[in-house]
Every structure is written in structure tokens, then in C-alpha cells.
Amino acid sequence: MIEASDLKKYFGSIRALDGVTVEIPGGVNLIVGPNGGGKSTFFKIAAGVYRPTSGRIRVLGKDPWRDAEFKRKVGVSFDPAGFPPFVTGREWLELFAEYRGGNPDEVAELLGIDFLDRRIREYSSGMRKKLSLAQALVGDPELVMIDEPLANLDFEAMGRVVEIIKTLRKETNFLLISHIWEPLLPVVDRVYVIAGGRLVAQGEVTEMKEVLRNLYSLSFTSQ
Ligand SMILES: Nc1ncnc2c1ncn2[C@@H]1O[C@H](COP(=O)(O)OP(=O)(O)OP(=O)(O)O)[C@@H](O)[C@H]1O
């Protein structure tokens, strides 16, 4: 689904990604790692937002930076999400539905969104997160990429998102970045740890539970 080879992204002297080689198969894939480790940079290259400094990436067989067709097959939710303030949630989702298909009302119902006709500038952070998730899901894309799917959500909404992934994983692939990884583990297939601009661990979720627990307790004991 995603293949990267010696992928690098430098911002001046900052080596945000410093040679990542990875093959991410279909399924539900979770990227974790410390703040500033390079997760979002990898995500943005995979989403076609950043051009790599060097190296190669293919997502669903396409070059995300160059291939316009790519955007019809992939739904993306960034964190933080950027929206134009004066449009309504419905108008925003209609833009995505226009080129990817799908129905804004259906995806809104799935996420428990009952505020589609209000202007986005009136939304709370949790409402913005839900709209951003809806934007990634509308039109049933082949790959759904979500940066922080559970951030800013209440417990009910978190449970709903986990259930949505559980249902959709039969026909859709996911690439997730999440600091809140524990609720996601039951629906995740594989975990990747990016730190210091490098891929430092990867594996099936069953093998990675211990690695995750160690990372978590290390980050507490080192403070
Ligand atoms: N647009 C940018 N310009 C300059 N430096 C950047 C830019 N984006 C990221 N960086 C730097 O690249 C490094 C990796 O950042 P990145 O956002 O990829 O990390 P992350 O793992 O997603 O972190 P977090 O968990 O805090 O979101 C950091 O040192 C960051 O300061």
C-alpha cells in the first residue's frame, strides 16, 4: 500500500526524516513515536503535501507529489485541521464529495455530526475534529489517512471512531498517527515507531504491545 525507500526530508539543518525505508501493506497501520520524531513529516509526504528532499515513495502505486489521480483514492485528515471559517460543514464536505463521490449526510450520521449547517468558525475543537474525520471518510476512499484520530474527542466519540475503523477495515485501508494508541489497538494490524527521523521498530500489533508499553513507561520514568 505504501512503499518508501531511503526517504529523507530536511528543513534547513533539521533532519525531520533521515532515511526511512518501509513497506506498509494494506490493513490498519498505526504510526507512533515521540514529539518531533518525524511522524507528521512522513504522513505529509505520503499525503502529497511535502515533496521529499530525496528518496522514493509510492502510495497505492502512485507518486503522491505528482499524481493528481491519487487524491481521488485517498482521504486525509490533518491535525490540526485547516478549514475556511465562513463556510458550513456541509459546504466543506460537498467539496470532497464532488471529486470523490459519497454523501455528506451519510458520513455525518456515522460520526454523530448534527451541526453540518453551522459555519465552521462556530465549531469547538471536537466538532472540528469530527468534520475533519468526515472529510477523510466521505466517498469511501481506498486509503484513509488520519493524523490523531482520537484527539479532542469525548469518550463517546472516541468509541464511535474505533467502531467505524472496525467496520470499514474490511474494505478500506488506514494509516493512522496517534499518541492515544491504547483504544486503537483492538482494530490495528501493524505498528510503526518513528523517532529521530528514522523507523526504529515495526511489527504486527501482537508483537508490538510490549514495545509500546515500554515506550510509554520509558517516557514517564525519563522525566
Ligand atoms: N514545516 C517545517 N519547517 C521546519 N521544521 C519542521 C517542519 N515540519 C516539521 N519540522 C521539524 O521536523 C521534525 C519532525 O517533526 P514532525 O512534525 O514530523 O514530528 P512528529 O513526530 O509528527 O511530532 P508530534 O508528535 O509532536 O506531532 C521536528 O524537529 C520539527 O520541528
Textual characterization of the structure:
This is ABC transporter, ATP-binding protein. GO terms for molecular function: ATP binding; ATP hydrolysis activity. It comes from Thermococcus gammatolerans (strain DSM 15229 / JCM 11827 / EJ3). The protein is an alpha/beta fold and 223 residues long. The protein has one domain: P-loop containing nucleotide triphosphate hydrolases (Rossmann fold). Helices cover 34% and strands 26% of the residues. It contains seven helices and nine strands; from the N terminus they run βββαβαβαααβαβββα. It has helices at residues 39-46, 70-73, 89-100, 104-111, 125-137, 155-168, 205-221; strands at 2-11, 14-24, 28-32, 54-59, 74-77, 143-147, 173-177, 190-195, 198-204. The strands form two sheets. Strands 5-6-7-3-8-9 form a six-stranded mixed sheet, sandwiched between helices. The longest helix has 17 residues, at 205-221. Adenosine-5'-triphosphate binds next to strand 2 and helix 1.
SSE diagram, text form:
Blueprint: E1 2-11, E2 14-24, E3 28-32, H1 39-46, E4 54-59, H2 70-73, E5 74-77, H3 89-100, H4 104-111, H5 125-137, E6 143-147, H6 155-168, E7 173-177, E8 190-195, E9 198-204, H7 205-221
Parallel strand pairs: 3-7, 3-8, 5-6, 6-7
Antiparallel strand pairs: 1-2, 1-4, 8-9
This protein binds adenosine-5'-triphosphate.
Residues 11, 14, 16, 33, 35-41 line the site of adenosine-5'-triphosphate.
GO molecular function: ATP binding; ATP hydrolysis activity
Organism: Thermococcus gammatolerans (strain DSM 15229 / JCM 11827 / EJ3)
Protein name: ABC transporter, ATP-binding protein
